[in-house]
């Protein structure tokens, strides 16, 4: 029986384990990436391990998310990150070079390799036939040590794309259709492998939008074959030598099947406050839009921005709309300038922002109170744009541009009419001017050993948890509902992003929008337990959503289900992830109830733990849905202590 592309890549990197869905396997990791607002903890952990140089083929540190130097914190972080990269053999992409995923695919990605990134949209690299997985920062630190990475063997789902997108539709509409069908939890444990004539016709930038935002389904990753489109892309990057064809076998066996006819798609919109709340733009009530943002790793490629510019050409941004645009990389920006598209945007009244993530993670361009923001980004959780009263809608660049003109939800066809066909003529450049001047290469090993790592006042030590004790008796410090996101736990914004290197400070704001008293009460409790509903910790790979509660004394999270990356982060940082054996037990628990666990260390290996509610006098069971290796990490109190024992 033939093999999927995913199976071929995993097999070629398999160190141990059986490739049976749900089983724990260990794989060799070729590449890692980090970005500035999560990375300090990653490199502090790597330093604490005590080896002299990264042991991957290529590790890159991107300074791309927070380029607003409003006080000392972010420059302190960037100087630390640049110096620690020099010391340990890591490439640096300097501020202004571009957003990590876009630059990584263009300048470092190689078909058939495996990459782990400390960012949930790392699957972006699946657009060129790489297997790219978003993980927590501690996992990236582990990968950099060369230790094989644990992975739960995913199911591989074939997504057969038929037909051709209509002009005015974008690959954003394909991934929004996927989200509509499978939901924000539907991808859990899956790799989506996109094939078929519709996939073959998509250029790498369009594939990247799909692979990137596949993260919103909860999938392990998404991948496209390395085919002629990938060869063309690598030629445009002057890297044809990195191309090798990688396809699934024609008789490949898959664990599931989805089919989408692209010809039937219409422009779609993800409505507040979850990415899977997807509707057709034509069926959404027309309401006044206050802000439009065109950008992010999801939708700021050359063709994305060029198409938005063509829609805006000859029009003015509506006077009630603030419209901004951030291009994904310097390379793309220069090509767009050369081809006249930046002029079109400026002439229409679009404000060009820095080449960075910026507004996507609430670093600048916060919407007004109760403002409606229409964005080409990938997330629309409450507060994601920095204002919890705002409503965020997600669309394609073409639809965002049309919305900027009309001041309400609109499609490109409403603006261009019979000229809509010209959007289909926009293609990715055959050739880019290659300029890697903003990439800093690793130093030779002997020189690197002489480098002093610079630690400004914002760089505080990495907190390391204790191993669990045999007896735990702790109150409930928070009872959350379904779909608590990492943004709820540790908010995104310029203010909070720059605190991520300083856990004593940042932990004071843990859950501060969702449960303003949490930090103070958890600290006063000493040790405590968090209760969650379904899909606890959904959203980003932000390990601060585990580190901050751990720092405040949280010992366990008991939830109906826990999002994949967040569960890994909890384990890595010494919080035990527990799942209600009977979800109805959630209803019987209240804030401050005292929960008692006896013989915890003996119960952990059985993967079922009995908990006594001492306040309400009943018992309930929880399950540990963890692998053997994860259990070792739990018993050691976290990945850092465990990892040090392995090296
Ligand atoms: Fe940056 Fe937004 Fe992409 Fe994250 S999702 S890497 S914040 S652009």
TrEMBL record:
Keywords: Iron, Iron-sulfur, Metal-binding. Belongs to the aconitase/IPM isomerase family. One of its GO terms (cellular component) is cytosol. Residues 525-582 form the Aconitase A/isopropylmalate dehydratase small subunit swivel domain. It comes from the Bacteria. Monomer. GO terms for biological process: tricarboxylic acid cycle. This is Aconitate hydratase. InterPro entries: Acnase/IPM_dHydase_lsu_aba_1/3, Acoase/IPM_deHydtase_lsu_aba, Aconitase/3IPM_dehydase_swvl, Aconitase/IPM_isomerase, Aconitase_4Fe-4S_BS, Aconitase_4Fe-4S_dom, Aconitase_put, AconitaseA/IPMdHydase_ssu_swvl. It comes from Lacrimispora algidixylanolytica. Gene3D superfamilies: Aconitase, domain 3, Aconitase, domain 4. Residues 8-407 form the Aconitase/3-isopropylmalate dehydratase large subunit alpha/beta/alpha domain. SUPFAM superfamilies: Aconitase iron-sulfur domain, LeuD/IlvD-like. One of its GO terms (molecular function) is aconitate hydratase activity. The keyword Ligase does not apply. Its cofactor is [4Fe-4S] cluster.
């Amino acid at each position: 029986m033939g093999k999927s592309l995913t199976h071929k890549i995993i097999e070629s990197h398999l160190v141990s384990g059986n490739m049976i869905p749900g089983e724990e396997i260990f794989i060799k990791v070729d590449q890692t990436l980090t970005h500035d607002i999560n990375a300090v903890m990653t490199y502090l952990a790597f330093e604490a391990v005590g080896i002299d140089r990264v042991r991957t083929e290529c590790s890159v540190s991107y300074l791309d998310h927070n380029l607003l130097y409003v006080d000392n914190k972010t420059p302190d972080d960037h100087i630390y990150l640049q110096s620690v990269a020099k010391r340990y053999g890591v490439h640096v992409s300097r501020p202004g070079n571009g957003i990590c995923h876009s630059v990584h695919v263009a300048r470092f990605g190689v078909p058939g390799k495996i990459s782990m990134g400390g960012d949930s949209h790392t699957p972006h690299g699946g657009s060129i036939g790489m297997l790219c997985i978003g993980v927590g920062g501690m996992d990236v630190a582990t990968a950099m040590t060369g230790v094989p990475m644990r992975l739960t063997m995913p199911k591989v789902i074939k997504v057969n794309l038929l037909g051709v997108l209509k002009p005015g539709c974008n690959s954003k509409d394909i991934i929004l259709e996927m989200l509509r069908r499978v939901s924000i939890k539907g991808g859990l444990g899956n790799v989506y492998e996109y094939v078929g004539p519709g996939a073959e016709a998509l250029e790498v930038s369009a594939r990247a939008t799909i692979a990137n935002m596949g993260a919103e389904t909860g999938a392990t990753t998404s991948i496209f074959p390395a085919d002629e489109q990938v060869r063309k892309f690598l030629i445009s990057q002057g890297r044809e030598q990195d191309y090798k064809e990688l396809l699934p076998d024609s008789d490949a066996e898959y664990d599931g099947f989805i089919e989408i006819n692209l010809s039937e798609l219409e422009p779609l919109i993800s409505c507040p406050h979850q990415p899977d709340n997807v509707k057709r733009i034509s069926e959404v009530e027309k309401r006044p839009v206050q802000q439009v943002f065109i950008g992010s790793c999801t939708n700021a490629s050359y063709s994305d921005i060029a198409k938005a510019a063509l829609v805006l050409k000859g029009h003015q941004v509506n006077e009630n709309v603030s419209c901004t645009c951030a291009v994904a990389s310097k390379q793309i920006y220069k090509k767009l300038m050369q081809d006249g598209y930046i002029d079109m945007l400026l002439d229409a009244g679009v404000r060009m922002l820095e080449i960075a993530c910026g507004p996507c993670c609430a670093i600048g361009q916060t919407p007004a109170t109760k403002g409606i923001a229409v964005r080409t980004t990938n997330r629309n959780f409450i507060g994601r744009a920095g204002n919890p009263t705002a409503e965020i809608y997600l669309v394609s660049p073409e639809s965002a541009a049309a919305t900027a003109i009309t001041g309400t939800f609109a499609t490109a066809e409403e603006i261009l009419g019979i000229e809509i066909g010209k959007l289909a003529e926009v293609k990715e450049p055959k050739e880019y001017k290659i300029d890697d001047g903003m990439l800093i290469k690793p130093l030779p090993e002997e020189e690197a050993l002489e480098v002093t790592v610079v630690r400004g006042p914002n760089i505080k030590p990495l907190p390391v948890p204790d191993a669990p004790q045999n007896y735990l008796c702790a109150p409930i410090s928070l009872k959350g509902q379904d779909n608590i996101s990492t943004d709820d736990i540790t908010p995104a914004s310029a203010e909070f992003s720059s605190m991520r290197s300083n856990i004593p400070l940042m932990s004071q704001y843990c859950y501060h929008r969702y449960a303003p008293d949490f930090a103070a009460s958890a600290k006063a409790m000493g040790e405590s337990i968090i209760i969650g509903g379904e899909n606890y910790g959904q959203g980003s790979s932000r390990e601060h959503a585990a580190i901050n509660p751990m720092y405040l004394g949280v010992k366990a999270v008991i939830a109906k289900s826990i999002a994949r990356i967040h569960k890994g982060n909890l384990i890595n940082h010494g919080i035990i992830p527990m799942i209600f054996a009977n979800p109805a037990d959630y209803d019987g628990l209240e804030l401050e109830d005292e929960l008692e666990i006896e013989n915890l260390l003996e119960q952990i290996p059985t993967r079922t733990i009995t908990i006594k509610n001492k306040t309400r006098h009943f018992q309930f069971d929880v399950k540990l849905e963890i692998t053997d290796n994860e259990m070792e990490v739990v018993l050691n109190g976290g990945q850092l202590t465990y990892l040090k024992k392995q090296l």
